[in-house]
Design brief:
With about 300 residues, the protein is mainly α. It has nine helices and three strands, in the order E-E-H-H-H-H-H-H-H-H-H-E. A hairpin with a 3-residue loop joins strand 1 and strand 2. The longest helix has about 30 residues. It is globular and about 60 Å long.
């Protein structure tokens, strides 16, 4: 996530710490239906339903608005989770980047991204939990639905009926996934973009941003999919249903060797455009509203 851009070799323009959260929220508005289908595929047990068929079921039962179940929780999640992880990474990178203008070593970039992602996962876990439940509600029988009106109502219902600590159900997996996701997205985006900019064929423009973010999204999906499946199931479980992470892994693995990669295609189909849109929005915010500093 290279937020600096040179201007006549004398200045750099850097992102403000909250730009990542705004960019991610904007991307979520467009990609939410894909996220909803991914969650529903991950919580399937037994015979799998294809993404196309699942889309048809949602549209038949809920209409087009059914594809946006949980959008308020999705936005709240991005404004907490992504603001924290992008913000921590950006601030730390600005403080620790080499003063001579060289790129930060990948291991340092990955460490900072992992740290930011872990913190973001913890901060965003309550909204993530409500988001998963609201997205999965549509496929449950009417008597089993939680029927949260919006993200705030969902947070209140969980806290009052299940206890405040329940808001952090699956937090260990959320934080682990967030750390891997942030490494895959931010660190690899930085590295890939730096490689492209070092060639004579790419400039600091939308084409480079799209190419870098697409590759980073593919890497992030591969790194996080097993943890994402476990996280989704833990969050959607009823109180006491998940005894331990190990037992959850074992029960999921019994469904087949690829059970931990359930929903990989919709996950990538959702994460790729979300990653692309996030970085395109982020780079536009940086270039138009970023902070100018002397190089």
């Amino acid at each position: 996530m290279t937020f600096a851009i040179m201007s006549k070799g004398k200045e750099v323009k850097i992102s403000k710490w909250y730009f990542g959260g705004l960019a991610s929220a904007g991307a979520a508005c467009i990609t939410h239906p894909l996220d909803l289908l991914k969650v529903q595929m991950q919580t399937q047990k037994g015979k799998n339903i294809s993404m196309l068929k699942l889309t048809g079921i949602v549209l038949k039962n809920q209409g087009i608005t059914g594809l946006y179940n949980g959008i308020s929780a999705s936005l709240l999640r991005q404004l907490t989770y992504s603001t924290a992880r992008f913000g921590i990474y950006e601030v730390a990178k600005q403080q620790l980047a080499p003063k001579d203008g060289r790129n930060m070593p990948f291991y340092m970039s990955a460490f900072l991204a992992g740290l930011g992602g872990f913190a973001g996962g913890f901060v965003g876990n309550p909204a993530d939990l409500v988001n998963v439940r609201m997205q999965n509600d549509v496929k449950l029988p009417p008597e089993q639905r939680r029927n949260y009106k919006n993200a705030i109502h969902g947070l209140w219902r969980v806290a009052t009926h299940e206890g405040v600590l329940r808001l952090w159900a699956g937090a260990s997996m959320t934080c682990s996934r967030a750390a891997l996701m942030t490494i895959g997205q931010l660190s690899f985006y930085d590295s890939i973009k730096a490689i492209l900019l070092a060639s004579p064929y790419f400039g600091d423009n939308v084409a480079t941003h799209v190419t870098s973010s697409l590759l980073a999204g593919a890497i992030a999906t591969t790194l996080t999919q097993p943890v994402d499946v476990l996280k989704t199931r833990a969050m959607n479980a009823k109180p006491g249903e998940v005894k331990s992470i190990l037992k959850l892994v074992q029960s999921t693995a019994k469904e087949g060797p690829l059970a931990l990669f359930k929903g990989y295609i919709p996950a990538f189909a959702r994460l790729a455009p979300h990653t692309i849109l996030t970085f395109v929005f982020l780079e536009q915010l940086r270039m138009n509203f970023g902070i100018i500093k002397p190089k």
